[in-house]
Amino acid sequence: MTDVHALAGAYVLDAVDDVERAAFARHLIECAACAAETDELREAVGHLADGAWSVPPPRMRAEVLARVAETRQERPRSAQRGGASRWRRFALVAAAVVALGAAGTVTAVAVHDQQATRAQANADSERVRAILGSPDAVIRRAPVDGGGQLTVVTSVDRDAGVVLLTGASAIPTNKAYELWLINGSAADPAGLMTAGSTSGTAVITGLRSSSAVKMTSEQADGSAKTPSSVLATVPLT
């Protein structure tokens, strides 16, 4: 089992099994450091949906995701067969939830009612957590032309995936990074990142018949019918 001191984040997000939950609960009784860390993490998670919630500055998403991309994660002692280890997926869960909480939404649709935005953000973060926590989740990455990285975590069982873009080149505010699902010679639009943003998180569906995820830079209104110059390609097979 992973070092019990490293379980605080997973314990708070309920990303542990029954044995680990019981072991960590016992550990909290005798470890003041882990108890304090657990309390702090619970407070942080609670702030994502409390009554004082408000839309933060647009730059926050990019700053958080850039820091996540630069932070080295502790290597798990053992990896699960058939995909990414649960601990690697947990790191992505935490990154995606923070990004969603900071940005308010994972889509390019503007929601002006703050309460509706908060509810949507909570629903999106739950969906991200479910996909990244799937036993069959697989992590794939590819560099982005001009700088940055595109990470795609897929779950065949859920026929869905989470896309995390970090550190891409600056683009005009009337442009947006767009995702495409490739099926043979066809390319179907799979979602837009926030206009003008160099980082972002998105949920994509309909992966079972797709061979790759591609990313381009298009008009932010979503009018593109076919992809322009491809900036990143993540094979799914």
Account of the 3D structure:
This protein is α+β, with helices and mostly antiparallel strands and 237 residues long. The chain folds into 2 domains: 47 residues, no CATH class; 184 residues, no CATH class. It is 35% helix and 23% strand. It has 6 helices and 8 strands; from the N terminus they run H-H-H-H-H-H-E-E-E-E-E-E-E-E. The strands form 2 sheets. It has a 4-stranded antiparallel beta sheet with strand order 1-2-3-6.
How far the N terminus sits from the C terminus, by CA atoms, comes to 31 Å
Adjacency order of strands in the biggest sheet: 1-2-3-6
Number of strands: 8
Strand content: 15-25%
The share of residues in helices is: 25-40%
Count, helices: 6
Query: H/E order of the elements?
Result: HHHHHHEEEEEEEE
Report the C-alpha radius of gyration, rounded.
18 Å
The low-confidence parts are 49-53, 74-84, 100-113
Q: What is the domain tally?
A: 2
How is the main sheet built? 4 strands, antiparallel
Shape: elongated
**Secondary-structure content class:** alpha+beta
Q: Give the averaged pLDDT, no decimals.
A: 74
